[in-house]
Structure formats: C-alpha cells, structure tokens
Amino acid sequence: MISITDEHYNNRNYLSSKYKITPRITPIIVTLYDVKVTEFEMQKYIEHGLKIVRFRLTKHTIEEKIKLLDHLKRAVKVFCQKYEICDWPVAVSIDLANGCIFTGFLSEEIPDNFVILKKDSIIELTSDMKYCFKCDAKRIFMNDPYTLPAIPVGAEIYLDFGEVVMVCVKIVNNKTIKCKVIKEGEINDQQKVCIRGVKHLKPALSKRDLEDIEFAKTYKCDIIIINTVRNPLLIEKLKALFKDSHIPLFLSVICDQEGLDNVKEIIAVSDGLVLAREYLACSIEKPGQLLKIQLQVGALCKMQEKHFFVSGHILQESLLIGHLVESDISDVTMALKQGAGLFLRSYSNECTMNQIYTLINNICLDEDPILMKTQHFSDIPCKIPLNAAETCIQASILTAKLVDAKVIIVPTVTGQTVMQLSNICENIFIVAVSKSPVVARKLQLFRGVIALPYDDNTAAFWESEKHPRIKFGAAYAFKFEILKYRCPFVALRKATSCSSYSDQVDVWSLTEKEHVRLQIKLKQSLQGR
C-alpha cells in the first residue's frame, strides 16, 4: 500500500479536545465492505463526521450483515459517551448491484489469490456457468449472458475499471468470445466488467437484489443505492416494493450511456443521483467529455432540487504517487463548489479508506468557510413560491443572509422543511431537531444538515416545548463550534400548534450566561441516561 502524505492535511487534528467536534457541510458516503471492520475503526470514521455509511451486502451472509449493523450501533454509542452528546444518527445505506457485470471466481488450482493477464495474450470471455468458479489466465467468466452476445469485434472490455483492458477479436458463439489483452494487469474474484459503447442488456433486478431489498425492509435501512439505473421505471418499481413498509431514500447511480440519455427522467423520480465516473470512463464512447457531463448533470440536479454525488477518480493520482497532487485537490474542490457530495467506494483495504476519508474531510473543512462567505444573494435559486410554506422557507434563508447568520435551526416532524431548505441554500448549516430517529438519519444525506434526535418528553404541551427545542439545537451548535456567543442565528418553526407547516421566522442570539445554563441542562440529561 502506498501511503499518502501531506504536511497540511494529515497534521490537522480537528478533534484534539474531548469536547470538540467540527461538522462539515458536504455529505460524504463511506463504504465499509469488510466484515472484519471493528467498532474502533467505525468510531474513527464517526469522529471525523461520518453521517452516511454504505454497506456492500452482495458478498455477505445475513449473519454478517447483522454483525456489521451491530458494530455500527455500538460504535455510535461509544462515540456519544466519549464526546458527551445525546446521539449521532448515522444513516445506513445498502447497495443493490442489479445491472452491474462481474467476473467469476478464480480456480482453486491457482495458488495465489490473483491471476496476471499478460499483454497480447488471448483470453476467452464466457458466460457459461460451468466456468464461474474456474477463472484463470486463459478463460474469464462474465455473469451476463444477455450482453455478451451483443459485444462486436473491436469492442474494448475493461476489468476492474481499467486494471486490465482487452479488445474483442473473435466471436466464437453466443456464450463465448475471444479477446486480446492490450493492457496487462492482475485480477482476482468478482471484478467489475465495463464494455465501451455497448448497451447493457442484463435485467435490472436479480434474485439476490430482491433478497437485499427484503433485508432493507426488515432492518429499516435509510437509503437504497441502485447501481446502473438506465431508466426511471426501475425506481418506480422499487418504490412499489416499499409501499407497505417504511420508505427509504433512493439514490440512482448513472453508470452507462443509456442512463445518461435518460438522466432527466431518472432525477425526477429519485431522491438523489450519483455520477459514477469510474464506470462512465470505461463505458461511454467519449470519456474526454466526463468533466462536461459532470457539470451538466450537477446543474440538472440543482434545477430539480435533488442531491448530487460523484464517485470514482477521487484522489486517484495521489494514491499512485504517494503524496497529494494539485489536480486531485482541484477535482475535489470543484465538486464542492458545484454543491456535490462525495461517494467513496471500496479501496484496497480499510487503512487506505480511512486515510482517504480523513484527507477529504480536512479538505472539506478548509473549503466550507470559503463557500459560506462567497455565496451571494444571486446564487440562491429563489423561484416564485407556490404556497405559504415555500414563502417561509425562502424568508428564513434571506433573513439568514441579511443578518449574516451561519445557522438555521428547524424543529421538524417529517423533515420536509429541512430537505427544501438544504436544496435551496447549500452553504449554510441547518440544525434539524426531530423526535423521530428515522427522520434524523435520513436528513444526514442532505447538504449542510446536522440532525439531532430530541427525546425530552418532560413538556406536557406544545407551547412549553417549542422554545426548548430551539435552545437544544442552539446548545449543540455552540458545542460543535458552528455558532459563537452573541452571533445571530435563525429559527424556523410553527407559530402555533395548529399550523400545518413552519410559518414563523425568528432571529435569535444567545448570551454566554444562557449558553452555560443550557450546557448544564444538557450534561444533566446525559447523566440521566
């Protein structure tokens, strides 16, 4: 493993004090794919602001999946005790492999856990199931019997996102083609397969995907990430499967040209979009236009007020060289300025993932103050409101800009007001106070949102509870150091218990005396747990 070193980003310690937690605006989805990951390792991620975790469930048994969820739950509990906070909701997302194409498993006769495909060698690529567990240097299994017959002579085939590149030289039959290796490399079990310029014909959902969906329904996973979404019908079908259970958020991943062609329709039915740059670089006919595609898709997401993430090629060159490269930092900062979240997929081992996540987290913390200062009134997409609820949301944002407030505190039940706030005003902290842990976890996906579960049931009436909720959010904003003494913040809440939406905008400011009183009350509530 090559270690990335950088004096500035590696030496920064944002959690040097026991009581210091520095949240960031940009949401980052982190993949924990190894069942051997420990509670301590999960806690380290949480200490650096982890709010969304992605589990790759394809290769795991039910027992291993439950074990991962239990590790996460205990890691959150230890973290909260260590930093003296009530709760830190972490949204759990699962991955549906659905349309992705994989190779098979290496033959048991191969002593190593990898095989080297040498340049100019001829390889058979087959979809014959009898070779699924017999891959070697002469024959590779591909788990898509639908797309393989459509591969023409001359098509480029990428294994493991370009680790090995082959070109089709001969069609043997409907199950087998012969390929010539033009870039040698090593592969192991179940590597991703991408084919440039060929339409994927593999069915959208498999039996294993349906099993993972049942797991998500049983354990109430917060986010479903659907790989290789080619049209909006798949998302509508998945939503129908959840109609009798809790409704998660759906993130669509664009991996090929067909998905790009239907991206507007896909955005419309999804809760967010992931642009899989690692897949697109190996599948579309013009990979040189990837930056242009990223800007266009990001703009479409912003127009439809949907969240946008990018994955792949994140600090890629830095990983190869061993130190941070300016082009990699520019790539990350450009994505942040575009309002995009970051999606960190699997790396070679957990140590590399932890290091990459720490570096990106520190880059985000450097960039956040700049983004908050540079956003102008003209950057806020304030369209003509359709109803009074939208009017109040826009009023809270404009008020925050007028008084130079860095925080908006919103007591919420369903989270809809917070979601709309986040979609309109990206570069501001929104402290969401909710009694529902499920709502709090879902809100962690949204840019700039700090979701806090509120479980104080001492107030008998709504009127006696509305101010404590605001002060509860303010106390944590001070604790997280995003709010300072006497600095104004905006509160968006219901004016009366009969209001059907948040219709009151206030400007608050807490004195040092009030802050100390709130901290004492907060510590007493923690000791009573």
CATH superfamily of the largest domain: Phosphoenolpyruvate-binding domains
What is the CATH top level name of the largest domain?
Alpha Beta
Strand order of the largest sheet: 1-2-3-12-13-14-15-16
CATH fold node name of the largest domain? TIM Barrel
What's the domain count? 3
Number of helices: 17
Sheet having the most strands: 8 strands, parallel, barrel
Mean pLDDT: 84
Helix coverage percent of residues? 25-40%
Low-confidence stretches: 1-19
How would you describe this structure in keywords?
529 residues, alpha/beta, TIM Barrel, M1 Pyruvate Kinase, Domain 3, Pyruvate Kinase, Chain: A, domain 1, 3 domains, 37% helix, disordered N terminus
3D architecture notes:
The protein is an alpha/beta fold. It is built from 17 helices and 21 strands. Strands 1-2-3-12-13-14-15-16 form an eight-stranded parallel beta barrel, surrounded by eight helices. It has a six-stranded mixed β-sheet with strand order 6-5-9-8-7-11. Helix 15 (437-443) links the parallel strand 18 and strand 19 (449-453). The longest helix has 25 residues, at 350-374. Residues 1-19 have low confidence and may be disordered.
